[in-house]
Sequence to fold (177 residues):
Amino acid sequence: MKKVTAIYPGSFDPLTNGHLDLIERGSKIFDRLIVAILRNTEKTPLFSLAERRDMMEAMTEPWKNVSVDTFEGLMVDYAVKVRATAVLRGIRAISDYEYELQMALMNRKLAPNLETVFMMPAEAYSYLSSRLVREIAQLGGAVKGLVPDLVQQRLREKLEPAHRFEDVSTSRTGKKK
Ligand code: PNS
Fold:
């Protein structure tokens, strides 16, 4: 029987519980699922490619048909390279639909044999995004329950030195901390 390899592309900066929910769902319907982390060329990510890969590998370890890779350039070229026939994308709300539809149709134009498959994460994650997690963490808010404990820890390690520096500089000026 034909085995289906799918890729789940994204920035994953950082990965959230919503991403993991989708990976679990994808691992059940595809024979092989490759989480493909984009090496962002336009924006500067919070976590380096190596850091994002490391966290994703640790968190997807339980699913034996899931592997992690990185890519740059066109997603469809990467899909052809790894012989994937499907692309998994998550849709949280109607607001995601327009962008996702545009991307899926453009990818279909570029690679007609590659099918985009949309899945919905659990309702509890429908408002969750990496961008909001980054913003909340950078402003000192709690991200517990939104990301795995490992990611929470790495966010703390990455952002704490900045807070410590802030403390030092304010105390040096003599102003109240
Ligand atoms: O997690 P994101 O940022 O929503 O993922 C977007 C991603 C990585 C799927 C998309 O930006 C992408 O495929 N980038 C690779 C470049 C590419 O193929 N662009 C053409 C899209 S039609």
User: Anything to note?
Assistant: The helical segments are 17-29, 49-60, 75-81, 94-110, 130-138, 149-172. DSSP finds six helices and five strands in the chain.
